[in-house]
Amino acid sequence: MWSGPPQPDQGLPPPLVAVPVPWKNTDPCQGHRESPGALVETSAGEEAQGQEGPAATQLDVLRLRSSSMEIREKGSEFLKEELHRAQKELKLKDEECERLSKVREQLEQELEELTASLFEEAHKMVREANMKQAASEKQLKEARGKIDMLQAEVTALKTLVITSTPASPNRELHPQLLSPTKAGPRKGHSRHKSTSSALCPAVCPAAGHTLTPDREGKEVDTILFAEFQAWREAPTLDKTCPFLERVHREDVGPCLDFTMQELSTLVRAAVEDNTLTIEPVASQTLPAVKVAEVECSSTNTCALSGLTRTCRHRIRLGDSESHYYISPSSRARITAVCNFFTYIRYIQQGLVRQNAEPMFWEIMRLRKEMSLAKLGFFPQEA
């Protein structure tokens, strides 16, 4: 009967165990093995080396740890220094950027201010140029009007200025120096500005109609003559002097006192400033009247008196483009005042070279014409 594998203690030999035998490295020529004594020494040395290995390894590990810590510390310090340096550089860059940003803002502000000032200066120059151009055009227009007026006045002065000496005046050229019985029809003072026509009521050359001269006697009023003499010493257009103050109060004011008070005031100021223009209205141009002119008045209604009259003349005040149609009676009153102011301007400018008495009687005649025009007497037109 089988009872399992044979046991060692049953007389069988023990199994073979391989025992490593250390060999000593020798020259290839020496192919014999080490001696047993050498084997023993070698095994002892290995045991001693096996005991010293862990300590050496532990020492190496400690050395490695210490060196790695030193390297880590040095690396950390180096990184800290680099970080600190980078922070400084970044701070400097930030400061530089901030400074440049401030410079840019300042430059932008200066540029805006400069642009605004340049635009303002340009607008100012354009505005001044426009104002100068308008003033130049106005002066040119006024100069042309004055040239026209002076040309007409030069023609009128041919009958007013004494060409001979004051001691022996030329009475043929100046019929106002003749006696009332010898004085025939004579021309008055014509005042023109551009296309204006203001004729003395004594004669109407355009109509070809003259008034019969008066045959009354004359006597010098000492008070009026004294006031005229005082004014003649220093001629002026100031209304505060006694001579002109009396004429304005007694003649000019009543003669230019029309029903339309507002327009009457404007007309009086224009006559005193010599800026009133009287224009004849041509019949062929009546249908083409501007709207602005129709609004001021019509050819059938006088703008000053408000009465229904046939208006053959119109007036313009200063540089205004508006026209006002006036009746023959209103025109006669305006021209009478204009003739008076024209004559005293001639005296003020030294264009009338007469003695005091003839000049005084000429002024009295002009005052008489203003009074007659105020009362409604005026020459009829053809």
UniProtKB/TrEMBL annotation:
Coiled coil: 76-160
One of the GO biological process terms: protein transport
Region (Disordered): 1-56, 166-196
Keyword hit for Protein transport: yes
Keywords: Coiled coil, Guanine-nucleotide releasing factor, Phosphoprotein, Protein transport, Transport
Superkingdom of the organism of origin: Eukaryota
Every GDP/GTP exchange factor Sec2 N-terminal domain range: 75-159
Similarity section: Belongs to the SEC2 family.
The protein's name: RAB3A interacting protein like 1
